[in-house]
């Protein structure tokens, strides 16, 4: 049995990761400051004797004896990470330094949840890990993008300088049950709007693209990556290469929900990337043939079911 620390464990992805790690027979410490996460995401785990919940902010040091660390703590949706941008950068940078310091002290393996945002508004399509990106360093998204880029640099330097065992994954847009209904991300926005009969808000003309990955596929990739040998450090893209425009996504959500919500257009936010699609050949090669299995339509159905139940309780 391994003792595993999951920072950001009460969030959308972190809570699914805690479920999986416990199901695999591990001892899990879930650390979160509840900025965007919620106890309701992990309430079903609190009676499990192998699960420990800690209220803590990763910008402060944390001490525990652990074998592995998954560092997920960081708000992920533009609305949330722009709410207090200085805190967002501190979370990525100081949080990484604290967790890397912990990994160094206890010789734990540590994984950084990096992001496709390190590619910015990419000029190379699809994005391979070797692409260095096109990020505006002074824009309103930079608190997130540059924070995550700095975190990657820190991980690499702790690895080179202190031989810390690291893994870096670059996660592409992921969706599924337990997304925050108000976090402003496109999948949750469109589903909640469709279910409540509000207009579907497309930013810009809706031709911008994203590639949406169902959360279970991501979790499988994360666990496989953590279990690779010490020679594999990444960064490695984890995403679903099927690319959709926001207009296509809106139509799919309307079709699945049977909603009569109208589509309306709102201004495109500053620095909004025009296209995004992962090249996942490295992940397929390094992670034993890993690839996403859940098609958008099926994943959306499961997510709609979740929001439907959530909204009917509210
Ligand atoms: P989320 O907002 O649901 O989860 C983030 C969690 O981190 C929340 O529980 C939040 O309370 C916690 N947190 C934030 N600041 C903290 C701090 N200072 N100290 C302790 N806890 C803190 O978002 P998510 O979608 O689950 O994202 C998890 C991770 O995956 C993030 O690091 C994010 O950058 C990364 N990621 C997510 C996506 C995606 O599409 N969901 C894409 C790329 C990368
Ligand atoms: N978007 C949209 N309507 C919304 C929310 C988002 O059209 O109500 C667009 C947004 O402008 C972006 C895409 O959907 O082009 C994905 O946005 P999200 O915030 O989910 O993720 P990110 O931009 O970080 O990939």
From TrEMBL:
<dbReference type="GO" id="GO:0048040">
    <property type="term" value="F:UDP-glucuronate decarboxylase activity"/>
</dbReference>
<feature type="domain" description="NAD-dependent epimerase/dehydratase">
    <location>
        <begin position="4"/>
        <end position="231"/>
    </location>
</feature>
<dbReference type="GO" id="GO:0042732">
    <property type="term" value="P:D-xylose metabolic process"/>
</dbReference>
<dbReference type="InterPro" id="IPR044516">
    <property type="entry name" value="UXS-like"/>
</dbReference>
<keyword id="KW-0520">NAD</keyword>
<keyword id="KW-0963">Cytoplasm</keyword>
<keyword id="KW-0210">Decarboxylase</keyword>
<dbReference type="GO" id="GO:0005737">
    <property type="term" value="C:cytoplasm"/>
</dbReference>
<dbReference type="GO" id="GO:0070403">
    <property type="term" value="F:NAD+ binding"/>
</dbReference>
<protein>
    <submittedName>
        <fullName>SDR family oxidoreductase</fullName>
    </submittedName>
</protein>
<keyword id="KW-0456">Lyase</keyword>
<dbReference type="InterPro" id="IPR036291">
    <property type="entry name" value="NAD(P)-bd_dom_sf"/>
</dbReference>
<dbReference type="Pfam" id="PF01370">
    <property type="entry name" value="Epimerase"/>
</dbReference>
<dbReference type="InterPro" id="IPR001509">
    <property type="entry name" value="Epimerase_deHydtase"/>
</dbReference>
């Amino acid at each position: 049995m391994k003792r595993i620390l999951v920072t950001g464990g009460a969030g959308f992805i972190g809570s699914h990761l805690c479920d999986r790690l416990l199901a695999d027979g591990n001892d899990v410490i879930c650390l979160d400051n509840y900025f965007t996460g919620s106890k309701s995401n992990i309430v079903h785990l609190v009676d499990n004797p192998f699960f420990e919940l800690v209220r803590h902010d990763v910008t402060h040091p944390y001490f525990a004896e652990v074998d592995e660390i998954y560092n997920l703590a960081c708000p992920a949706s533009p609305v949330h990470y722009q709410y207090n941008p200085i805190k967002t950068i501190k979370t990525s940078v100081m949080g990484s330094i604290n967790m890397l310091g912990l990994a160094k002290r206890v010789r734990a393996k540590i994984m950084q949840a990096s992001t496709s945002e390190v590619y910015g508004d990419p000029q190379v399509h699809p994005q391979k890990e070797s692409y260095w990106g096109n990020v505006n360093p002074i824009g309103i998204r930079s608190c997130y993008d540059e924070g995550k880029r700095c975190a990657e640099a820190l991980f690499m330097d702790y690895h080179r300088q202190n031989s810390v065992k690291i893994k870096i994954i670059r996660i592409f847009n992921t969706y599924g049950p337990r997304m925050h209904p108000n976090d402003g991300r496109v999948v949750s926005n469109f589903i909640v709007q469709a279910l409540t009969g509000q207009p579907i808000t497309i930013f810009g003309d809706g031709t911008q693209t994203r590639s949406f990955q169902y959360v279970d596929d991501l979790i499988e990739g994360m666990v496989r990556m953590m279990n690779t040998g010490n020679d594999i450090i990444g960064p490695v893209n984890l995403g679903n290469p099927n690319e959709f425009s926001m207009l296509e996504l809106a139509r799919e959500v309307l079709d699945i929900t049977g909603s009569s919500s109208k589509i309306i257009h709102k201004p495109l936010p500053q620095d909004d990337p025009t296209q995004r699609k992962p090249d996942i050949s490295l992940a397929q090669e390094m992670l034993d043939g890993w690839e996403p299995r859940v098609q958008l339509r099926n994943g959306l159905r499961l997510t709609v079911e979740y929001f439907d139940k959530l909204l009917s309780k509210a």
